[in-house]
Structure prediction request, 259 residues.
Amino acid sequence: MDTPGLASLPFRLTGQCALITGGGSGLGLAMAQCMVGAGARVVLVGRDETRLSAAAQSLGPAASHVAHDVTDLAAAPDLVRQAEEKAGDPINILINNAGIHVKKRVEDTTSQDFQSILTTHLCAAHALNRAVIPGMKARGHGVILFTASMASLIGIPLVVAYSAAKAAYLGLTRSLAAELSPSGIRVNAIAPGWIEAPMSRQALAGDEARTNKILGRTPMGRFGEPEDIGWAAVYLASPSAKFVTGVCLPVDGGASIGF
Prediction:
């Protein structure tokens, strides 16, 4: 069998266009970098215009950006329209990555804290899913990804609202995959382990005991790198994963199965 050229490898995303929320930094930007490297166009979404603009410029001509607050749920269709205009292509990959983090004891987590987390993670993702799915159905192809978490899989103290939202992503992944797969739309999640990224640094700030506990239960004995999540996203969005839907892929150095 002939070896295919790089442009035709099943891991390539040539001709695909991804909308990535929370795309201006951290794991969102890492996923964007890897997707551009695999041949996709990307549209970065976030609230910070300056950060988004700099991130898009760093990625080159395959990247554009739209400043938008994903908690403005009614504006999700307009965001998709703007993104497609900026990219010059329809959105056929949606990465629900935007998120916020509150680290508090359960009795100190207010109803406002809880609702804010759920709105940013769950309600915003649902609104964007609704906005992109009709076009994906019409084209007979699409990929939706969720950035889940170790908090989707194991009990982690002091992050009750975040854990609830990230666990709910798994239900969304399975339900959407079951409903949308006949339309050619695959839905999957990635559960990052502890990665060197801004949100994990915030969560572990000043907590040496927790940091040591994480490393102690991670068989690989180290934190991951943002590109580990980026390349996992490329795989799940690519033709290489054409028979993969409804799964949550841990990328965690073994933390979810470690002792």
